[in-house]
Amino acid sequence: MAGLLLHPGSPARTRRLAEQAARTGVFFHAPHTWQRARAEVLRAQLISALTDQVRHRREHPAAEPRDVLDALLAVCRSAEVPDRTAAELYLMMSRAIVVPLSASLAWSVLLACLHHTADSPWPWPADQIVRESLRYRPTPWMLGRTITHPVEIGGVAFHPGELLSVSPYLMHRAEGRWTDPDAFRPDRWSEPDEHGQYVTFGAGPYTCPGAAVAQTLLTDSLTALARNARLTVTGGDLRPVMAEGSVPRPFTLHRTPRRGGPDATPEGGE
Questions:
Q1: What is the pLDDT of residues 117-128, one digit of tens each?
Q2: pTM of the full predicted structure?
Q3: What domains, with CATH codes, occur in the chain?
Q4: How far is CA 165 from its chain centroid?
């Protein structure tokens, strides 16, 4: 997605800083103090580079949006939005895109590998693995909405201005609404009566507008990873880290091309 976040014609230094930010604690919360300190230095460098890029693009606007930054600047045309503020908004949007997608893909790989250890290919389609992973370990722990009009839910009255929070994790584990809710079962998505309310991307008018795109990106990425290869993991742990949502703990993915496949090497190594 790097080319969609910052198009290839962007300055090499800015793109390099953005890539480092995605890997070294700027996008994800770093676990150690020294890593967080280093991430703050990198974040300041990235904001400075993005501010320069915002200034340049405002002076030389593109005819059509080439990336997320162009799309953001098309909305923030007002001079009341300073260049640095636009750069910080862009970084916030980039994190909102990269973090849930990468965490969800990691959960899909990890859960599928831990629940199918045989040498045979995964028995489930990639889209079912993704949907079940998003149910089993939804990245957002809580979704909050401000009540706009009086409403009663489950015998409890809510008033305008109050904040109503819903946990996708708990809703996805509700007994009576899901068959065997504590089990990782991608095949449940082939049966219409096997699943309950699915709110990984929100629901109703507040559904994430990028839900369909995210589902497609995750499915295509998982399909590409698993194509003609055996995937295994070491260091996998089902306990999440609660940082920017539910994030898997570090693990190592091993991808071994299957003999005779287009990705196979003469040595058949990992």
A1: 888 899 999 999
A2: 0.84
A3: 2-102+125-210 (1.10.630.10)
A4: 21
